[in-house]
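Records of this kind hold a single protein each, on a pair of labelled lines. Below, a sample record shows both lines together.
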Amino acid sequence: MHIKLRLIVMNFLQFAVWGSYLTSMGSYLVNVNLAGHIGIFYAMQGIVSLFMPAIMGIIADHWVPAQKLLSFSHFMAALFMGLAGYYGMTSGQDVEFGPLFSLYALSVAFYMPTLALSNSVAYTALDKTGLDTIKHFPPIRIFGTIGFICAMWLVDILGLQNNHGQFFTCATIGLVYGCYALTLPACPTSKGGQSKSLVEALGLRAFTLFKQKKMAIFFIFSMLLGVSLQITNGFANPYVSSFGSIPEYADTFGVQHANILISLSQVSETLCILLIPFFLKRFGIKQVMLIAMFAWVLRFGLFGTGNPGSGVWMFLLSMIVYGVAFDFFNISGSLFVDRETDKEIRSSAQGLFIIMTNGLGATIGTLGAQAVVNHFVDFSSKLPQTGQWQAAWFTFAAYALVVAVVFAFVFKYKHEPEKM
């Protein structure tokens, strides 16, 4: 029980660091006239995810115990995020893209590998105490999402979601976590023997799966659906907050507390995890993936048709749908890859799934979404831009719909309940 409690605290802090800025940074960038760069800020997470986790994984495997590398990475991420906050504080409205983005990018480069390192620490600790990771880790991991939600609420309630204060919040939590990580159970390193090559560590060997038509189609669509993953993280808060320029919506709860409203998405995500085993066994991976794809259509479409006043129910429904859209794709996809690949390349195959979704897909998606938003929304205008924002959301919905329809016809898979 003691080790599970310690790992719960670890996961809570791990995702609280991320939640303190991930959904609110877009609004800050709008406020300092960097709205046109929101896409690249969010894309940076995907770009560094293509190589930094693998590099840190090799270091943790061979030279530095995972818990110490986890601590070091969070100290460095907190340092650069704190500097980004300090730059934002001292520059006021004169923030320039170059310095802020450089500091933020360095912070993210150290943070993203900790998502995998924290899992390694948890798996090692559970193994040492004889606990089944498949049974005991998911309930522990849920507290990560709870930490993410609590950080969102904290930033919102403290009035920091539109200013540089969110970066200081992130840095503070990161420093606390960096200290805490040093107290976690020691992880072994491998000085030799079964050492992974760089090709294996990067998951490149799994690219041989593209020789199988079924897996090639699956990974390609994983990337196409991954495009949707970070769009609402980057643009939902600025969009909801933009209704503040319309008098009838200015004092609504959604405009005043956009982060709390958006956090319902993470609440839904936590609950929808519990539905996955039933849906996979009953309907199979193709139907579950299609449900996720159409959920993305609803997620974006409801954003476009809703408002913080009489149409707030559409926003709320969009938040509920997010859990299905995110979990049914990410977790079900990961389980499908695990079932359909040989043991020898399972880890590499999981790495490839992450590269295609959170790496390539999310990077292309956030940059593409920025281009769409820039096309429709005039951030320099003093006039309300809600109609223009709606056009952008409908474009995202149309994209998700096209992907879903093509996937339905192209991906051939016979459901075998006993395999799930």
In short: The longest helix spans residues 97-128. The chain has two domains: 1-186, 197-420. The chain has a mean pLDDT of 88. The radius of gyration is 21 Å.
